[in-house]
Amino acid sequence: MSIRIAFLASRAPVAQTAKTAMVSRYGNVAKEEAEVIVALGGDGFMLDTLHDTIDLDAPVYGMNRGTIGFLMNEYSESGLIARLEAAEEEIINPLSMRAMDAEGRVHRALAINEVSLLRAGPQAAKLKISVDDRERMAELVCDGALVSTPAGSTAYNYSAHGPILPIGSDVLALTAIAAFRPRRWRGALLPSNATVRFDVLEPDKRPVMADADSVSFPNVVRVEISTQKKIRHKILFDPGHGLEERLISEQFT
């Protein structure tokens, strides 16, 4: 069976070499014409590919030519067609970020992993947290805070001691980064349909930047985050190696 494949690769030499080999073996079409998009690189390139193909219906199958490769399958030049035919599909809904900066400009971005607020100066950030227009924490003094999807919960969220979320769970993780006050506050689990709002307190003295999957905006004063249910990223995994299995395995390493 022939499958129209678009091969995309990161700029890393190992990924470019892999693309040359795969194209020679399986052919290549434009991503707009593809039935499947194969991304060759690491997790960062996979996120870039998902963002770049957001308006396309073709699922994305990643092959690891990077470092960790949590979102990727094992790389092999042989047997690709059979692997694509047997692959299992996972659906991921991204987060939508709406950030207002100190000059009143509004910035929007999507995040598949997480939206982070990070201090941008020598002093800790001060944040007020509201959920669905209800104030939940009047003041969090911290290096930052983030809201993570289940798919992104093993990334920055986990490094900040946030929980790993099962891929099928209908929740988001709200995690503090180096919380100073309340010192022992580790965050909260929220329903995926919740809207989280951060208000930056003392923004002139304690500047904060907002980041959505490495798309950053400086000097923000207010950030609203919610799940974008209308956008459905389709990712393919080899049988038995999908996100659910990876999320479980990550907790025992």
UniProtKB/TrEMBL annotation:
Keyword field contains DNA damage: no
The reaction(s) catalysed by this protein are: NAD(+) + ATP = ADP + NADP(+) + H(+)
Q: Show the InterPro entries listed in the entry.
A: ATP-NAD_kinase_N, ATP-NAD_kinase_PpnK-typ_C, NAD/diacylglycerol_kinase_sf, NADK
Q: Does the record's keyword annotation contain NADP? A: yes
The GO terms describing molecular function are:
ATP binding; metal ion binding; NAD binding; NAD+ kinase activity
| Main localization, broad class | cytoplasm
This protein's cofactor list reads:
a divalent metal cation
What EC designation does it have? Answer: 2.7.1.23
The annotated active site, in chain numbering, is D43
An example GO BP is: NAD+ metabolic process
UniProt: NAD(+) binding residues: D43, G44, N113, E114, D143, A151, T154, A155, Y156, N157, Y158, S159, A178
Q: Name one GO cellular component term.
A: cytoplasm
UniProt record similarity statement: Belongs to the NAD kinase family.
What the protein does comes down to: Involved in the regulation of the intracellular balance of NAD and NADP, and is a key enzyme in the biosynthesis of NADP. Catalyzes specifically the phosphorylation on 2'-hydroxyl of the adenosine moiety of NAD to yield NADP.
Q: What is this protein called?
A: NAD kinase
Organism of this sequence? Phaeobacter italicus
What taxonomic ancestry is recorded?
A: Bacteria, Pseudomonadati, Pseudomonadota, Alphaproteobacteria, Rhodobacterales
What is the gene called? ppnK
